[in-house]
Amino acid sequence: MTEIKEYRTVSQIEGPLMQVEGVKGAKYNELVEVQMHDGQRRQGQVLEVNGDYATVQLFEGSAGVNLRDTRVRFTGRPQHLAVSEDMVGRIFNGMGKVIDDGPEIIAEKELNIEGEAINPVAREYPDEFIQTGISTIDHLNTLVRGQKLPIFSGSGLPHKELAAQIARQAAVLNSDDNFAVVFAAMGVTFEEADYFMENLRESGALDRSVLFINLADDPSIERLATPKIALTTAEYLAFEKDMHVLVIMTDITNYCEALREVSAARREVPGRRGYPGYLYTNLATLYERAGRIVGKEGSVTQLPILTMPEDDITHPIPDLTGYITEGQIILSRELYNNGFRPPIDVLPSLSRLKDDGIGEGKTRKDHEPTMNQVFAAYAEGKQAKELSAVLGEAALSETDKKYLEFATQFEERYVDQGFTTNRSIFDTLELAWELLNILPRTELKRIKDPMIDEFLPGKE
């Protein structure tokens, strides 16, 4: 058994960081218990060891800590989470403590929240369709089991409503497999937290969800643990309980701000925009915990949500996230201002794994060709709309006018489905064919004639 050592040699406190002198055998990421002069206990984690000095990051902040009378105990192990299948249907704070007035969780196991990297050889390729009930995702930017597909939003855009909608509606198609949602909210207001809890409770989706809520007024340092705790829970449910788990994390930007705060307190040399140089590596340790493992029934799929500061997609957080993940769903301020909900901009959005999760036996044989045709037609229609704005509609050819009508109908009927409509992929495909019916048949160049004959409504 690991020896627990106790010290009374706190020499310095700055922000959430505490420096302890004369420490022997401390390890990186080791869990630390801090007992204050009034008997209050707090937890921390070793961030750095330099000789006999240890830098400890305090989860609950350092307010009220007395240098002389504070006792620090090094537990000899990293932070662990007590997990159980009974966590499904429950609500926890950002550190994994029950906050829904229910009984405490009786642990089946205790797991290290840092997790273990999945051996690349043991990874199974993601190729099974997940239905979110949202046309712009299911049809044009398909999510597959084991994928990490972030949502890029902006300040004031309705990513909160979109996250709740996906948590309510997501399902594995044509499957009796266990499906669960792990929802991690970081740095959200009380109103947002209440919205998520009530929304899932009223729809009944809470019964298959695990919620971790880190509020804006909680110490920001706790934010660094919340996604790791959520992913540890997801890995346990997926790889030990054979469940298909969708992890929704909002807002990754708040997580990165907490990381920058700790980095500044450690006086590290800042990188782009003041974020630490290891931001890429740190985000990768979260995102790469998605996937499927050979020989395991379960899977972990991630939908991280981040708000782009000033809607800047070149900002370090969306920029680095885009490098690590397999695509992105982008919310458009223009669509939002024009009243379209959810305001998903399909043209810059991308799911790099979509081609492997669609087609006969997974969705329907007309999925890929209609996806390509709808995407191309909408792009053409947007160009026609810009031309019309400059030269007037009279300058458009008859075909251009059809594309313009298609783009308008696409936004009004296909994109604008609201936050309560749950469309199956088959409903979406039927709607896509109705919209393609606007165009002359000669323009449907990405779909083979036999398929047009079979699916296109009202045409010979």
From TrEMBL:
<feature type="domain" description="ATP synthase A/B type C-terminal">
    <location>
        <begin position="356"/>
        <end position="455"/>
    </location>
</feature>
<dbReference type="InterPro" id="IPR055190">
    <property type="entry name" value="ATP-synt_VA_C"/>
</dbReference>
<keyword id="KW-0813">Transport</keyword>
<dbReference type="InterPro" id="IPR022879">
    <property type="entry name" value="V-ATPase_su_B/beta"/>
</dbReference>
<keyword id="KW-0375">Hydrogen ion transport</keyword>
<dbReference type="GO" id="GO:0005524">
    <property type="term" value="F:ATP binding"/>
</dbReference>
<dbReference type="InterPro" id="IPR000194">
    <property type="entry name" value="ATPase_F1/V1/A1_a/bsu_nucl-bd"/>
</dbReference>
<dbReference type="InterPro" id="IPR004100">
    <property type="entry name" value="ATPase_F1/V1/A1_a/bsu_N"/>
</dbReference>
<dbReference type="Pfam" id="PF00006">
    <property type="entry name" value="ATP-synt_ab"/>
</dbReference>
<keyword id="KW-0406">Ion transport</keyword>
<dbReference type="InterPro" id="IPR027417">
    <property type="entry name" value="P-loop_NTPase"/>
</dbReference>
<feature type="domain" description="ATPase F1/V1/A1 complex alpha/beta subunit N-terminal">
    <location>
        <begin position="10"/>
        <end position="76"/>
    </location>
</feature>
<dbReference type="InterPro" id="IPR036121">
    <property type="entry name" value="ATPase_F1/V1/A1_a/bsu_N_sf"/>
</dbReference>
<dbReference type="GO" id="GO:0046933">
    <property type="term" value="F:proton-transporting ATP synthase activity, rotational mechanism"/>
</dbReference>
<dbReference type="InterPro" id="IPR020003">
    <property type="entry name" value="ATPase_a/bsu_AS"/>
</dbReference>
<dbReference type="GO" id="GO:0042777">
    <property type="term" value="P:proton motive force-driven plasma membrane ATP synthesis"/>
</dbReference>
<dbReference type="GO" id="GO:0045259">
    <property type="term" value="C:proton-transporting ATP synthase complex"/>
</dbReference>
<dbReference type="Pfam" id="PF02874">
    <property type="entry name" value="ATP-synt_ab_N"/>
</dbReference>
<comment type="function">
    <text>Produces ATP from ADP in the presence of a proton gradient across the membrane. The V-type beta chain is a regulatory subunit.</text>
</comment>
<dbReference type="Pfam" id="PF22919">
    <property type="entry name" value="ATP-synt_VA_C"/>
</dbReference>
<feature type="domain" description="ATPase F1/V1/A1 complex alpha/beta subunit nucleotide-binding">
    <location>
        <begin position="133"/>
        <end position="351"/>
    </location>
</feature>
<comment type="similarity">
    <text>Belongs to the ATPase alpha/beta chains family.</text>
</comment>
<protein>
    <recommendedName>
        <fullName>V-type ATP synthase beta chain</fullName>
    </recommendedName>
</protein>
<keyword id="KW-0066">ATP synthesis</keyword>
